[in-house]
Amino acid sequence: MSIFGSFLGFNVDTVGDLSFLLKAVSYRERVLQRSLATRLYNKVEKKREEFFYAWNSCLHHVTSLALAHIHRVTLEQFALAVQECPVEEDHTLLTKVCVKPVFHSSVSHRSIGNQKLCF
Q1: Whole-number Å distance between alpha carbons of 34 and 46
Q2: pTM to 2 decimals?
Q3: Of 2, 17, 29, 46, which sits most exposed with the smallest number of CB within 10 A?
Q4: pLDDT tens for each residue of the chain, 119 residues long
Q5: Domain residues of the chain, as ranges?
Q6: In sequence order, which residues have a C-beta less than 8 Å from that of residue 9 and are 6 or more positions away?
Q7: Name one GO cellular component term (predicted).
Q8: Neighbours of 64 (CB within 10 A)
């Protein structure tokens, strides 16, 4: 199965491929970051809330963004390690055994703000 969307650019990657997963977790982090910035801006600038109270009301969003950041950095480091793996059989095994479960448990049903990212 292939999917094409705005965060994939001009090519189509297969769902579950490492390159697709990297793009998906980066997209999730960017969406959470932008929506958090928008929420804080609206609370502080438009509703004139104090920043401390606005920040506290967005803590769930902040922790979701932190987790998305951790997922992205971890997956990027894993991708680098897989790319530098000298043995082709190990490379294939790491991709099959480690990437597929990560995709299904970490990316497929995580929320993006109020939206769900489901493939």
Answers
A1: 17
A2: 0.72
A3: 46
A4: 445 555 545 455 576 678 888 998 999 999 999 999 999 999 999 999 999 999 999 999 999 999 999 999 999 998 898 888 888 888 888 877 776 665 555 544 444 444 444 33
A5: 13-114
A6: 23
A7: peroxisome
A8: 20
